[in-house]
């Protein structure tokens, strides 16, 4: 059992603020902010003191209303944004001893390319829409050091068929595809270098229900097959219920509740979580 | 020589600024150094980058050769030669081996360069990642982080679409294991000539305001894949119809009346040199 006790990804006291902050809002008294916004200097505190661990093969769900800092958190994890303060460790990187946020931008690039995959809510952010689908997958493989066309083409085709994209359309650009197909190409791309950590940011939002179901099904089966750890952000409790083992609830940039998904959904403690669960149709 | 202008057209301050950028470029092989590209009496895109390099470097003792796509006599080459010679009075030559500065558009001469020589190449698009990433801000970051998947991805896409790498010219190269560089639109045939070259190679992009360099004896590797190695254009079994040379870059010409295809040296001065040598030896 000991090997399960080491988290693959560990986040400690992550803070992200937009704006300089002032004496008024740095005051720890909770009443100085309007939600997470300082009315004096206009600073937005998007993530406040967020800490969590992700264990091997675990799916961690993050829920919260829009504007609660979920996506900002994901962007910080994938180095799309600089964090204001905080620490992150990956067990397979330098034995989990180096704080990822303090690494050089080259090293961050290495971590992104070799140890992580991310699926964005909008396929346009994660794909090169004018390049071929197989090229999109190859991009991640090239970045991870592959220089063999045959190998990349085989791997790309294998992944595309896994995500139910007909192999004969592999040389087509994702701009010709439907939203659901684009999303599946993005998933294939994120999985191409077999990352130990996959970040999913609202992957099914905007897809119709049948496509949603097939994308979720796909993620679930791939996750089981490859034993990937996933951080899954969604405002859709249905998605969380289906995929996540453990769930964090975020409100105004803070984690207000965390626990097993069933526990959170059946017996929510925080008032916000209660209203969230009760508003579930 | 026209005395109304300063020597080599530019004022000394301009020359110094360009030379300073050039020195930085030589110190960082393959790195694109921004410089304040001057307004020139020829249009941007017609070799202003190369011309500014030439003018900033040239001294009274220099011997200049200018080539345009292998030809010493095309309009562009002639105009540039005229401008430099009118404002400096330096000697102009067509012989590659006699020149100290060779300004060239899209070719490296067939005659191997020597260590006393400087090759100045005119560059239209200095950024090898431009097609992949349109923002300069982003490409600068990619260079800084040595993140060149985009350059390989472009080649990968060509293989997917056409079955082979289809860069006719400007095939990207890795300079000294650090920066990926656009070698200017020289044919792939000329890429290997850059590797460990004895001469200093300077590249100037006037419109894009960049100078970069390949110092002598720098390792230049053309990008490729394990199973799709870099190949230069092949002229196997073909030779120049005028001088009979093989193993040089040949132009394919088609006689429109007869439809006959024939080949001719692209480097005209090289072709003349061979012809003249043969004539002296009494071959023809």
Automatic annotation (TrEMBL), chain A:
Q: Where is the ABC transporter domain?
A: 32-277
Which UniProt keywords are present, listed alphabetically?
Answer: ATP-binding, Nucleotide-binding
List the GO biological process terms.
organic phosphonate catabolic process
SUPFAM superfamilies noted in UniProt: P-loop containing nucleoside triphosphate hydrolases
Signal peptide bounds:
none
The record, for PROSITE patterns, names:
ABC_TRANSPORTER_1, ABC_TRANSPORTER_2
Q: Which GO terms describe its molecular function?
A: ATP binding; ATP hydrolysis activity
Which Pfam family, any one of them, does this sequence belong to? ABC_tran
Q: Which domain of life is it from?
A: Bacteria
Q: What is this protein called?
A: Putative phosphonate transport system ATP-binding protein
Which species is the source of this protein? Cytobacillus firmus (Bacillus firmus)
Q: What is the lineage of its organism?
A: Bacteria, Bacillati, Bacillota, Bacilli, Bacillales
Automatic annotation (TrEMBL), chain B:
KW Lyase (keyword) present: yes
Q: Which InterPro entries match?
A: PhnJ
Keywords recorded for this protein, A-Z: Lyase
Instruction: Report the record's Gene Ontology biological process terms.
Output: organic phosphonate catabolic process
Q: Per the record, a Pfam family?
A: PhnJ
Q: Which GO terms describe its molecular function?
A: 4 iron, 4 sulfur cluster binding; lyase activity
Protein name per the record = Alpha-D-ribose 1-methylphosphonate 5-phosphate C-P lyase
């Amino acid at each position: 059992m000991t090997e399960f006790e080491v988290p693959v990804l560990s986040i400690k006291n992550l803070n992200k603020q937009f704006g300089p902050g002032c004496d008024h809002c740095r005051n720890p008294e909770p009443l100085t902010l309007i939600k997470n916004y300082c009315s004096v200097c206009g600073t937005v505190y998007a993530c406040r003191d967020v800490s969590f661990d992700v264990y091997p093969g675990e799916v961690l769900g993050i829920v919260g209303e829009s504007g609660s800092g979920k996506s900002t958190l994901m962007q910080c994890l994938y180095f799309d944004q600089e964090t204001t303060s905080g620490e992150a460790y990956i067990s397979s990187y330098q034995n989990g001893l180096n704080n990822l946020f303090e690494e050089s931008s080259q090293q961050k690039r290495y971590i992104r390319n070799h140890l992580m995959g991310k699926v964005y809510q909008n396929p346009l952010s994660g794909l090169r829409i004018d390049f071929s689908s197989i090229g999109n997958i190859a991009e991640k493989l090239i970045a991870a050091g592959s220089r063999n066309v045959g190998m990349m083409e085989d791997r790309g085709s294998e992944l595309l068929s896994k995500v139910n994209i007909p192999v004969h359309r592999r040389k087509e650009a994702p701009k010709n595809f439907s939203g659901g197909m684009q999303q599946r190409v993005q998933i294939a791309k994120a999985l191409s270098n077999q990352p130990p950590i996959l970040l999913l940011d609202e992957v099914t939002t905007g897809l119709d229900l049948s496509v949603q179901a097939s994308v979720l099904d796909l993620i679930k089966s791939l996750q089981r097959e490859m034993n990937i750890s996933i951080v899954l952000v969604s405002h859709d409790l249905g998605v969380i219920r289906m995929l996540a083992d453990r769930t964090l609830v975020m409100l105004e940039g803070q984690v207000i509740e965390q626990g097993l998904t069933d526990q959170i959904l059946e017996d929510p403690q925080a008032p916000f979580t209660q209203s969230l669960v009760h508003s579930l149709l | 020589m026209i005395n109304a202008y300063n020597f080599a057209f530019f004022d000394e301050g301009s020359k110094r600024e360009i030379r300073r950028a050039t020195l930085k470029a030589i110190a960082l092989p393959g790195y694109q150094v921004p410089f304040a590209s001057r307004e020139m009496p020829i249009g941007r895109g017609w070799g202003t980058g190369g011309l500014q390099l030439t003018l900033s470097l040239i001294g009274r003792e220099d011997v200049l050769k200018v080539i345009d796509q292998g030809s010493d006599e095309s309009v562009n080459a002639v105009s540039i030669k005229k401008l430099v010679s009118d404002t400096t009075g330096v000697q102009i030559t067509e012989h590659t081996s006699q020149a100290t500065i060779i300004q060239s558009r899209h070719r490296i001469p067939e005659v191997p360069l020597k260590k006393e020589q400087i090759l100045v190449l005119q560059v239209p698009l200095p950024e090898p990642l431009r097609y992949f990433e349109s923002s300069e801000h982003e490409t600068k970051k990619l260079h800084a982080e040595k993140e060149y998947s985009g350059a390989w991805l472009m080649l990968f896409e060509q293989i997917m679409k056409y079955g082979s790498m289809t860069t006719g010219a400007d095939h990207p190269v890795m300079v000294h294991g650090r920066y990926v560089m656009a070698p200017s639109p020289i044919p792939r045939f000329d890429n290997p000539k850059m590797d460990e070259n004895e001469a200093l190679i300077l590249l100037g992009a006037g419109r894009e305001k960049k100078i970069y360099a390949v110092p002598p004896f720098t390792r230049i590797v053309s990008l490729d894949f394990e199973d799709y190695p870099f190949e230069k254009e092949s002229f196997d079994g073909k030779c120049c119809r005028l001088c009979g040379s093989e193993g040089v870059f040949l132009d394919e010409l088609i006689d429109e009346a007869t439809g006959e295809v024939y080949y001719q040296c692209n480097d005209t001065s090289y072709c003349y040199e061979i012809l003249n040598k043969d004539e002296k030896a009494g071959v023809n």
